[in-house]
Input
Amino acid sequence: MAEQASLIHCDVDLDAPGKQTGFLRLPHSVHRSAYGWIPIPIVTIANDDGPTVLLVAGNHGDEYEGQIALMDLARMVAPDDLAGRLIILPAINFPAVMASARVSPIDGGNLNREFPGNALGTPTQMIAHFVSSVLAPRVDHCLDVHSGGTSLAYDAVLLSGPPPVDLEARNRQRAYIEAIGLPSTLVFRGGGVTGGRNLGAVIRAAGGTSFAAEIGGGAHVTPASVATAKAMLRRYLTATGVWRGAPASEPPAATRFLANGPEDYLYAMEAGLFEPLAGIGDEVDAGQPAALIHFPDTPWRAPVELAFPRSGIVVCVRPLAQCVRGDCLFQTGAPWPDAFA
Ligand SMILES: [Zn+2]
Output
């Protein structure tokens, strides 16, 4: 039996030159709209021969720097600026973006845990399937811009898969990382927290390169975090070869490679109030006090002290004081200067 085609209709011609705007129409039959669809905005800009680059934000709806920077790009870039094709999805999980929530309010779906998706599944699974089956085969390079969302705050960090064994592939990956030029690059030594269900996995499986970035978080943006996202995107477009204009004026930072594994996450083991004892960018040692959990329901009980499980640099912290057992409080990365040597 032939594989089920996506039911999502794309307003724009993904192979046409010029600048097009429109929507991915995701069929959604509900009480107030029996034959309705969910409008996921898409912008394509194409000119001459060159790579196809997919830029994504709103994979999680409460992560805003990428949304703002991609809307800016979508308005600004003209076909003459390019040699190749840009596909821009600034609000890929549109229901989550409209709700300012990590997951879709319609089906509870976390898009970045749904790939490769399902053509006949929930709305979130249908979005993942469209990307996997329609976009991924066309895409040479993809950058998926995240932040910590509501429950985590990051300094700007690029996320990378493990260094490839093949020397040429490793050098290529390193070249992209250095061109993107965020101050830190977190290199996952295992499968990471998504278990391979993320957007980048389907891009790489189809032969493309893919990175994700974590810029800011805590359900807000700052002048610095938006500027970081915009500058990163300009450097990235130059590095892919799709940008034929003047190179980005903001130089890349010399990135610091950090290794990340399961032991680099610190979790609350009791419900209470989280008092951090370290901040983003701090260098910490294994066993060093990381947090106090206080108990407002039993104020005379001494707070529980938690320690960092592994030495490293703090890359993200929970910005919300209230916590329950299982909430991630800190993520660290261990310096790994020769990760791509
Ligand atoms: Zn995210």
The radius of gyration is 21 Å. The pocket of zinc ion is lined by residues 59-60, 63, 146, 149 (CB under 6 Å). The mean pLDDT is 96. The chain has two domains: 9-258, 266-332.
